[in-house]
Amino acid sequence: MFRKRSYSLVMTGILMGMIVLLMMFGSRLFLDIDEEPRVEEEKRIVVGVSQLGSESGWRTANTESVQNAFTTQNGYFLIFNNARQKQENQLKAIRSFISQRVDYIIFSPVVETGWETVLQEAKEAGIPVILMDRNVDVDDQSLFATCVGSDFVAEGEKAGRWLEKELRKRGYAEERVNIVMLMGTEGSSSQIGRTAGFTSVASEHESWHILDKECADFTSIKGKEVMRDFLRKYQDIDVVVSQNDDMTFGAIEAIRESGRTVGVDGDIVILSFDAVRNALEMVASGDINVDIECNPNQGEYLLRVIDMLEAGEQVERRYYVEEDIFTIENVTQELLQERTY
Ligand code: AHR
After folding, report:
1. N or C: which end of the chain has fewer CB within 10 A?
2. Is 293 in the pocket of ligand 1 (CB under 6 A)?
3. Which of 60, 190, 198, 291 to mutate to test the pocket of ligand 1 (most atoms within 8 A of CB)?
4. Are 37 and 77 in contact (CB under 8 A)?
5. CA angle 93, 99, 101 (to 5 degrees)
6. What angle do CA 81, 84, 89 make, to 5 degrees?
7. Whole-model pTM?
């Protein structure tokens, strides 16, 4: 009896001990599993991104690049806003990022001017601002930390230098050349830079005549409309400089509908910008003569910049993405297959 009792006492003791141990370590275990994501969440860097819109294939690729970079796995919490081409929407988005006390603000300014006040507000809130794709025109350079994007003036110059070479090759270097330009969003860095770069090369050639330049908002529909007007106004267009691929697609439609032909064997030489896959296919088939690349894959660059800022390192004022020029000679099947956008 006594032995039985002491046996059950021992058993009860062991059981109690196990319960206590379970409570101590078991609950710790459950807590850990439960709490781990919360701790991680606290460590995540919160980034507010104001994308200017979704006007082009390039823009879609740029958005994807940002969304693929600022993931939970990479340690980020991304708040993304699409401003649908309106500066007022971007201003609203940036102000909401400030009131949410994000760690960084990234934005692609639809136009260059009109940002001083909101950038000052971000500065006062101690939130670093990183420009993506396009620039802002502000006197106080301390209003943004850095800028990741393209050298638009260089892109415009590349187009000009390509045309120079092409005309020489065809033996037309001294002959009159009539050019029309389809321009992107008025006041945007890409429009300003590409126009400046190309016209500076054009100004070196007396025989180049820029008959007209008109804004077509970087969209295919507007590109077609504006090109139609040009074709009605001018009978003798030799060259179209279209500041992005979407406008080029529209312009080519308008040219074909007017009975004229484009590209390597056509009546009108086509210079385009961006180099999205559909356009590169048209370069390969000879419908577009040259495509000056504008690289939308800026997410990885932005990650690196934030890493540097987090480490307290000094960042440059500008980071330019790598870009190429494409003609029928270098658009290979491999390149087309690799192109994800
Ligand atoms: O700012 C970059 C330009 O904006 C791209 O060339 C164009 O496609 C986009 O809409």
Report:
1. N
2. no
3. 190
4. no
5. 105
6. 65
7. 0.88
